């Protein structure tokens, strides 16, 4: 017999219980609402490129197109497929973020060469949009990072700097040691972020302009992933921004080797 005899709850306890249940119900409703908004945002973001792929593949199949026209349509299809891929990867990372399953395998990295290789990877995209990209890194800095994961951090920041800049403008990547810490900053001269939004930009699914065009659309997950990964490296990320002037994201890491 497992029955337990409990003293009858006092009025206070009942009140407290009912308040806890109410809080729980509010939390659940909030989560439900968040989940629905998230699903709506995913379908919306994915639907657009899929519509393009469908539409342009119909056109590309038509008889009588010139070779150049067909290549033009195929290129659009290719770009849209790449975008779907990028969105799915972001989603996949989002799931990992939720379950804390990023694995970090650190190794010693020469910062200057590492940043140079990332610089070379993103340069073509910058050149395409007519935005200048400059890199300045103090020599002889070594850090201990997971090169792949940390690349994801920098790529996300550089991608945003490009997305939210309009020609003409310059983005600066700078790395130096200050107060025995390594500072890596990515500063753009783009649209900037309103002060009232700044505290939230690292939150999942937060986007300043909810209605902006698809060309710059993401899920609002990028910076949440960036923050999590920087913290997994025992670092901090700081942001300064001014509307119409630009934004500056700075990663601060402990220096591991010299
Ligand atoms: P998204 O996929 O929407 O770019 P992020 O998490 O990367 O999501 O960024 C969150 C929001 O912060 C963006 O929607 C944008 O409004 C703002 N933001 C991020 N980086 C910049 C930047 N360099 N310049 C201006 N706004 C930015």
From TrEMBL:
Keywords: ATP-binding, Cell membrane, Kinase, Membrane, Nucleotide-binding, Phosphoprotein, Transferase, Transmembrane, Transmembrane helix, Two-component regulatory system
GO molecular function, one term: phosphorelay sensor kinase activity
An annotated GO cellular component: plasma membrane
Residues in coiled coil: none
Protein location: Cell membrane
EC number(s) stated in the UniProt entry for this protein: 2.7.13.3
Enzymatic class: transferase
Domain spans labelled Histidine kinase: 41-257
Lipid bilayer topology: Multi-pass membrane protein
Every HAMP domain range: 1-33
Catalysed reaction equations from the record: ATP + protein L-histidine = ADP + protein N-phospho-L-histidine
Protein name: histidine kinase
Species name: Heyndrickxia camelliae
Part of the whole protein covered: 200 to 457 of 457
């Amino acid at each position: 017999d497992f029955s337990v005899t409990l003293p009858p709850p006092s009025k206070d306890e009942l009140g407290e219980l009912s308040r806890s249940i109410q809080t729980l119900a509010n939390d659940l409703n909030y989560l439900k609402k968040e989940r629905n908004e998230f699903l709506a945002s995913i379908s919306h973001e994915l639907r657009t490129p899929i519509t393009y792929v469908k539409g342009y593949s119909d056109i590309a199949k038509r008889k009588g197109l010139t070779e150049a026209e067909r290549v033009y349509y195929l290129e659009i299809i290719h770009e849209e497929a790449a975008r779907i891929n990028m969105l799915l990867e972001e989603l996949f990372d989002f799931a990992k973020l939720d379950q804390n399953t990023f694995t970090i395998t650190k190794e010693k990295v020469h910062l200057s060469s590492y940043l140079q290789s990332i610089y070379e990877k993103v340069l073509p995209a910058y050149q395409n949009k007519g935005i200048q990209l400059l890199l300045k890194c103090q020599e002889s800095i070594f850090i201990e990072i997971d090169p792949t994961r940390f690349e994801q951090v920098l790529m996300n920041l550089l991608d945003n700097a490009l997305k939210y800049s309009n020609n003409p403008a310059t983005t600066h990547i700078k790395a130096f040691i200050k107060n025995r810490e390594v500072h890596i900053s990515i500063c753009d001269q783009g649209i900037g972020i309103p002060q009232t939004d700044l505290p939230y930009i690292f939150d999942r699914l937060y986007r300043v302009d909810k209605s902006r065009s698809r060309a710059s659309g993401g899920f609002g997950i990028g910076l949440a992933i960036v923050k999590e990964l920087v913290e997994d490296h025992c670092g901090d990320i700081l942001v300064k921004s001014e509307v119409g002037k630009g934004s500056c994201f700075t990663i601060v890491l402990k220096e591991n080797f010299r």
